[in-house]
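Tokens for chain A. Residues wanted.
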């Protein structure tokens, strides 16, 4: 049983906002890295206890966030992608995909540090389903026959994961407390918007993650449950809507299609951006 473990920073217990926690040079960046790495180690411990043969830890946060010096020595560590999507998942003959430290998709209410890729995204959807980073990689995994079996992060992400992958094992370690979608926000405003959350203590978070990871692989190995694959229906249509920002005062959108390859579609650039002309057009472009 080979596991690809995707990591991110914004869904880790104790990590609170972009300003002070998520970029090199920020006051609490080194602490944030330690908190993430310990959550990763907890998941690794659970997966090995549950029978995993090998684990690749993918360092998915923009500037990198896993502290390799403190990482469990049994894993392999990946930084940088061989090409774009599906982020090296196509290379290793993996059986299972798992997530640690993941945050919910843009527009999610009650979510902490909410975004998709960056806070410039208003919404990304595939065939009428709005997705975030969890959905992007899980959909690619499905096409490759890799089952998505575990996700930890904030509560809103656990709910997002269960809606997209019914039966997936999830653990939540904090819950955002700000209501509303923030659709009115520019890119810069949205970055500041969702800093409020209630966090579990990091030690408690790690206990839950270790137990959850062990449960997930146990269930996946039992062969009685076939959870983890998203049914995909080609052709695929991707709709991307971008928030206004300092340089560009209007919302923009891009629509792309692919006959049968969702990984290729995910990798296509947003290179045909057009202005969203009206609120009515915006409502038509957005899923919810
Ligand atoms: Zn992210």
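Reply:
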């Amino acid at each position: 049983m080979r596991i690809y473990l995707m990591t991110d920073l914004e869904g880790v217990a104790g990590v609170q906002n972009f300003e002070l926690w998520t970029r090199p040079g920020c006051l609490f960046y080194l602490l944030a890295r330690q908190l993430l790495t310990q959550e990763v180690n907890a998941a690794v411990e659970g997966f090995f206890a549950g029978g995993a043969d090998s684990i690749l830890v993918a360092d998915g946060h923009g500037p990198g966030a896993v502290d390799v010096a403190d990482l469990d020595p049994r894993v392999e560590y990946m930084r940088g992608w061989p090409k774009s999507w599906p982020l090296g998942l196509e290379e290793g003959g993996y059986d299972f995909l798992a997530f640690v430290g993941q945050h919910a998709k843009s527009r999610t209410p009650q979510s902490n540090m909410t975004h998709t890729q960056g806070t410039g995204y208003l919404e990304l959807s595939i065939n009428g389903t709005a997705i975030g980073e969890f959905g992007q990689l899980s959909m690619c995994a499905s096409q490759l026959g890799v089952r998505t079996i575990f996700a930890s992060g904030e509560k809103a992400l656990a709910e997002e994961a269960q809606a997209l992958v019914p039966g997936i094992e999830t653990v939540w370690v904090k819950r955002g407390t700000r209501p509303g979608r923030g659709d009115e926000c520019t890119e810069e405003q949205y970055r500041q918007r969702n800093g409020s959350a209630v966090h579990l203590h990091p030690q408690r978070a790690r206990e839950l993650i270790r137990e959850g990871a062990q449960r997930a692989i146990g269930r996946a190995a039992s062969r009685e449950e076939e959870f983890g694959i998203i049914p995909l229906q080609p052709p695929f249509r991707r709709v991307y809507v971008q928030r206004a920002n300092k340089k560009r005062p209007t919302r923009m959108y891009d629509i792309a299609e692919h006959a049968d390859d969702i990984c290729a579609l995910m990798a296509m650039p947003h290179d045909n951006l057009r202005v969203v002309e009206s609120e009515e057009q915006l409502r038509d472009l957005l899923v919810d």
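The first helix runs from residue 18 to 21. The chain has two domains: 2-119+130-221, 236-285.
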